[in-house]
Amino acid sequence: MHNPKIRHTAGFFLSLIAAMLWGMLPVALKELLSGMDAITIVWYRFFVAGVVLFAWLAVQRKLPQVLQQTAPIKWFLLIAAIGLCINYFLFSYSLNFVNGETSEAVIQLTTLFLILGGVFVYKEPFFAVQKFGTLLIMLGLLLFFNDRLSGLLNLENRETIGVIIVVFAAITWTVYALLQKQLLNSFSSVQILFLIYAFSIVVLLPFISPLSLFELTEVQFYLLLFCCLNTIIAYGCFAEALNCWDASKVSAVLALAPLFTIGSLKLVVFLQPDYAFSDRLSMLSLLGALLLVVGSALTALMPVFQQYRANKRATLIEPV
User: Fold this and answer.
1) Do 292 and 140 contact (CB within 8 A), yes or no?
2) 126-170 pLDDT, tens per residue?
3) How far is CA 51 from CA 56, 193, 227, in A?
4) Could you tell me which of 23, 157, 173, 272 has the fewest CB atoms within 10 Å of its CB?
5) Distances (CA, A) of 27 to 92, 145, 245, 264, 310
6) Is the pTM of this model over 0.85?
7) CA-CA distances (angstroms) from residue 185 to 77, 166, 182?
8) How far from chain centre, in Å, is Cα 110?
């Protein structure tokens, strides 16, 4: 017998695990970049995840049949693959210029970009709650960078370069997400990810330094392993959460990722007070991060609000 409570509980915790893993990812990547370049890290993440997804789909006999698809679907798939591949690289590369808290805060722009993309591409409505959430996101960013705004206006500032790179990473992820909406009519989410990973493995191969794997310290090797497993487990939890829960609720929980990034770095700084890769945020910046999370959650939860209003109206007009 179907038990909604169990599905709600599973959906929440699976979403929370994904948010936690994605929140911890920039912390691991930042440390790993001292031993391996960004493009090689991304390639290893794609390679491990691609092998695992290939084995899973092969056992399930669900390997995607790309050649049987129409030309528009093939083009959508190609552009989506390029978008996600660039997103992975840019996000990792940005950590050469900014710390984990900053990268995870700025990448929250994906929520705003995805909403705007839905409005302009799919002609979706832009509701008052989403406008308020957008306002909170922008206000949150201003507060987050309150003591660094003047420095960000200088294009020669390394942090400015890093922020710009993360913004472009958010744009490329939005392109992938908008196209996935079309691709889901032809493939499952796992098949789409496998095809993108396979594409990226081949495309990035000429640019990597695979032997740098053997130059990593023991700690760096385990960080790379964590990043690879993070790609598999986080996306796996995300996909399974969508099977248990509403997509809007999943997205709202995923908005907590910056708090996990900040929390992870606070713990590292507590254990190692001289740790260099942390912005040591002020209370005002922490408030900005909180507003980012609330704004992202509000915009993601819009379908829930709409459903609640629709149910309330239906109740009011029911005949007595």
Assistant:
1) yes
2) 778 888 888 999 999 999 988 787 777 777 889 999 999 999 999
3) 9, 12, 15
4) 272
5) 11, 19, 28, 8, 42
6) yes
7) 12, 30, 6
8) 8
